[in-house]
Amino acid sequence: GTRLAPKEKLDIPMLFMPDTMKMYEAVVVIHVMRENGENWSYEDSAELNKDLKSSVTLAENGGIQGILWIYPLRGIPEAPQQKLVPAVVRCRARQRVERRVEVQLTGVVPEANAMPAGRNSTMVNTNKPANIQEEIQVTDVEFLYELQYQSNEVKSQLGALVGMHLIQRERDTESGIVTLIFNIVFAPNKPMRNEATLVVQCATRGVWKFPMLFIATEPEVDDVINIEAVGLNKESIVGFKLTSPTR
């Protein structure tokens, strides 16, 4: 029963309050009819193609009684943000380091007796052997992951220096918590300290976010140059070569 004037805009507010980590889908249907009750004339209304029939409602006399706009909606729940300790990946500049990072998700597998969503984010940066939980088959669950940066400048500086690969997936049969183990490669070319966010999305459940911190310390000294004085108030000169690793 909403009346719209010509060229008028209509805002339709949406509210999404998920209580579980589960993907939701819905459809918003807008049905428009003339205010005077008349139909729109359409000569070939009896021969409308299949796609157009789904977008109109036909009257008995063959005219078009209403027009439909159909908008699909997808509700993607995001795990509550918690003050987690960032997983720190530290390396000297001009060197390369590999670290294993574990993230824990709850509410991923429907059969699991998962904890409430309000307690569903923990993170551990560890190098201990990956035998802490019983490994089960979670290959039917698809996980997407990426590193997000605070700005495009940080992304351009750090994006090419970090590599990430999901190497293992496990689930605890009692709690239903799924553990993802990533292999992180960090090869900085100069000292830096940048933050990033590891974003994990399950195709049917939701999104989890975990903070990360990449630290590149000062590189090792390349060489020591000794200059011996030839006498007071006299210059001593020593030469050395510098080679650029790029063009």
Q: Taking strands numbered 1, 2, ... along the chain, how are they ordered across the largest sheet?
A: 4-11-10-7
Structural class: mainly beta
CATH architecture classification name of the domain at 77-109 and 141-220: Sandwich
CATH class descriptor of the domain at 77-109 and 141-220: Mainly Beta
How much of the polypeptide forms β-strand, as a percent range? 35-45%
Average pLDDT reading: 80
- Which parts are unreliable, with pLDDT below 50 for 5 consecutive residues or more? 111-137
Number of strands: 11
Describe the structure.
This protein is elongated. Helix content is 4%, strand content 38%. With 247 residues, it is mainly beta. The strands form 3 sheets. The protein has a 4-stranded mixed sheet. Strands 6-5-9-8 form a 4-stranded antiparallel sheet, with no helix packed on it. Among the domains are: 52 residues, no CATH class; 113 residues, Immunoglobulin-like, CATH 2.60.40.2310. The chain has 2 helices and 11 strands. One of its GO terms (cellular component) is cilium. This is CFAP47-like immunoglobulin-like domain-containing protein. InterPro entries: Ig_CFAP47 (IPR058952).
